[in-house]
Amino acid sequence: MQHVESFNRQNSYCAVVDVIEVRPGLESSIEECVAAISANANTYFEIPLEAPLDLLRAIHRNGGRAKVRTGGLVPQAIPDVVSLAAFIQNCATTGIAFKATAGLHHPIRSLRPLTYAPDAPSGEMHGFLNLLIASALAIDGASVEILCEVLADGEASSFRFTDSEARWRTKSVSMSKLRETRERLAVSFGSCSFEEPLEGISILGWL
Prior knowledge:
Layout (H helix, E strand, L loop, with lengths): L1 H10 L7 E4 L4 H10 L5 E5 L6 H9 L3 E5 L11 H14 L3 E4 L8 E4 L8 E4 L2 H12 L4 H9 L6 E3 L3 E4 L2 E4 H10 L1 E4 L5 H9 L4
Parallel strand pairs: 1-2, 2-3, 3-4, 4-10
Antiparallel strand pairs: 5-6, 7-8, 8-9
């Protein structure tokens, strides 16, 4: 951390390090990491989807956030909807914010090539809108079964958006609830392409 703090002091006019990611092992290692990290940095702990509640509570207790991977270079790296739904619900229950990275290139769940190589394997990639809507419903106490249905839905027609709300089938999420979700639960998602997610939304007529 001394190197990070030194970098921030010397380069505050153009760039600072305000996010740090670590892979913890046990609850004690979370506390050790937090003790060594500047209070000015958001700390994300990369954990498996099946992380026990005690680990999530330790991250929350120490002011950290969670990071999970939702894809990869092979189909086996893509987690199933049940595991992802359970993780989202556990984060909502423990009050811990998270970000999801890897594989979230497209708004709606769909079968896609996993890389840009001509011979790339294909897999059912999670949709980032599926993830965000499921997270918003989780804050309102939706069951794992409902979250699974949202995450598994590959029909763009199931999702609708107006100036005041987002809808999935018969369930609605207000704009204020979506803002709360971004602040308290699903704070961000990562994609190796900046343009691909925007193109996907534009093609569906949502941008």
